[in-house]
User: Fold this.
Amino acid sequence: MIEVNFRIRDGKDFVELSGGFPEDATVLDALETLRARAEGAAPAARVPHYRHSCHHGSCGTCGAVVNGLPSLMCLSRLSDLAAPRPREPGGPAVEPSHGPSGELVVTLEPLTRGSLVAGIAARPTSALEGIPEEYSYLRPSEDAGRASLPADPTRDGEKLPALDGAVSPPLSGRVRFEACIECGLCSAACPVTAPFLGPAALAAVNRHREKAPESAESMLALAAGADGAPACERHLHCSRVCPQAVYPGKHIQLLRKALAGRAQ
Ligand code: SF4
Ligand code: FES
Assistant:
């Protein structure tokens, strides 16, 4: 077991909650345990709001700043937080913090650049919001695709289970691109303060440029804006924190190369 004192941001204050948890528990596991333990307790003893869904790093909803680093709480093991964590390759590590009795102290804060809901629950709205609506590749498409599926689908002559239309509510907003789970960790980690489309958006722009040559010019025009690739200061924190190995910094670099090639 590992003794942990959680300091969880709730507005201007921190709520402090302690407990013992299995070594391989994640921060999200621990919060779920604390929440169950506090059921029926006074509001001050309850866990502040947090977001989650899948518990395995695929939905992107549980992002938070964990001991100073934007992280997915469902992938952050307590045992890992008890050891120094590299902030960036070759850079200074984030040292673990311990309380007076030797307990591990874990500080949780909401992701920056998101829309704060409450507690540490924040929606990473800024990850893709800089991309204009007219770029159709990031518009809803799955629902239209599903609507056009035959009512009685078959594959290789074999009948497939019927689709339940009720489980597919209309999508609104933009669809996902490749491995990105739109968690917003890259935007939260990026220290650029000037107007900036952001790492996730520029990674999407570059992938579309590569995959759809007919869109390359419009993608490069988007990337060439003052808030596009030129705004990137090459800190590369985005690639460091991305839980899906999207490497947004690499995509921004590829956009720069393509822009430089176009200018020659
Ligand atoms: S590029 Fe990575 S860090 Fe950024 S939103 Fe997508 S999955 Fe998250
Ligand atoms: S709960 Fe889905 S990514 Fe963490």
Q: What stands out?
A: The chain has three domains: 2-122, 127-137+179-263, 140-167.
